[in-house]
Every structure is written in C-alpha cells, then in structure tokens.
Amino acid sequence: MTLIEPKDxxxxxxxxxxxxxxxxxxxxxxxxxxxxxxxxxxxxGTYWNGGIYCIxxxxxxxxxxxxxxxxxxxxxxxxxxEDCVLGVNTNVQPKIPLxxxxxxxxxxxxxxxxxxxxxxxxxxxxxxxxxxxWESSEDxxxxxxxxxxxxxxxxDVDSGNWEPTGFHVVVRFGRSGAAxxxxxxxxxxxxxxxxxxxxxxxxxxxGRLPNDKTRQQFSIAKIADTMTELQGNRLFTLxxxxxxxxxxxxxxKTPEGIIARVTVA
Length: 265
Known about the structure:
- 10% of the residues lie in helices and 29% in strands.
- It is mainly beta.
C-alpha cells in the first residue's frame, strides 16, 4: 500500500490510521508530517465532560524514563529506534511522581525484551502531538454560546485561547505494524525555564483534564479507535484508563522486523 502525502488535517488523520509502523519509510513520512509544522492544529472534538480539544502535531515530546540504561548496551545501536517511537509498561510504577502505590508493581523495568513484543502489560506507540484545550476568556460568561465552527476558524479566537493540557496524543500499534487505537499519555517531563526537560514532575499536580469536574487523575487513556473518528463536532470519552504513573521506555526493531519495548517487567 502506498502511503499518501497528507495535504490537510483530514489527510493526516488517514495517514496515521493507515501507516505500517514497522516500515521505516512509512514512519519517516509520518514523522515529517507531524514534526515539520505542516499543519498548525488538528481538531478532534469535545470531551463528554466539557471542553473543546485539538492536537498540535509534535513527534518528539514524550521521553523515556530510562533514556540510556545499562541494558541498552545489549542492543546494536542501529536497532534502537528514535524517540518518536516509544513503549509503555503499564505494570511498572516509577518512584516519581509520588502517588499511592499499586500493589506488587516494580518501580523500574529491568528485563531485556529480546524477542517479539507482547501487548500484555504495555504497548508500543508513535507520538502524534500535544493535546490542547480551548480556554475561554474571563469576559465570556457563557461558554455554551461559542460554537465549534467559531473555534475552528482561528487558533486565537476572540473569546479565548488554546492552552496545553500536559497530555500528548499517540497512536498505539501492534506486532503487525497496524494502528490499534489513539491514546493520550501525560508528559511528566515539562520544560523548565531554560527550555530543558531533565526534571520529572515530583508533585501530585498532574494528569487532570482542564475543567473536568470529576477531577479524574490518570496517566494514560484511550480516546478513540482511529484518528478519523475524531472530529471537531463529536464527543469523545476516556476508556482503558490508568490512574497511576506508568513507565515510558525506548523501543528497538527485532531481527524479524517487529518493533518492541527494550525493557519489560
């Protein structure tokens, strides 16, 4: 299948859904589309509990919790993948940030994943973009008077602005390389005053969507089966929610051509 060159945000959604993520050429085309500022924003709809959301394409925002662990020396340097493709271990709860510990979860993965990856207790993903929220201005007393079409007409609308949520949008994919769901993952490494991202959040102020009256806190949630179903005039909900911090790890390509997490627990 020939991957189309996206000409607009709707084309980009189709590319995200149809990319073979095991194919280096396909991934490079997608990386270029989401990392080179071709599209300023992609509207994805309204959360059921309030708020209008969009994606600012960005392929290199999330970073692994173990950027250069000793274990990586066991892998040939050419087989380690770029940080736009990472993995998540949902059966690992890092020490930072502080949070109620889940029973029997280790704080770091240490087992080398030297075979084809399993989707048990984790998965691999490609980064898509920053999740932003439409923030109404203080002068706008009735947010319900703002129509979706008004918001989609400009990134800087008269009655408010787009603000980052702290979450990043990713596409999960399986052993075959086919897309398998759209997720949001909280970014625990925000930029500091120098623009660096070395320090991890070490407080309880993370993982909540703006204006969510339930105040649900989570690190990962699924928002759609495919990108094309996310539209500016549709509601989306959260499923497969993980309410505790999880571990992000690097990925590698096995001799069989499968993309797998470097370490697992």
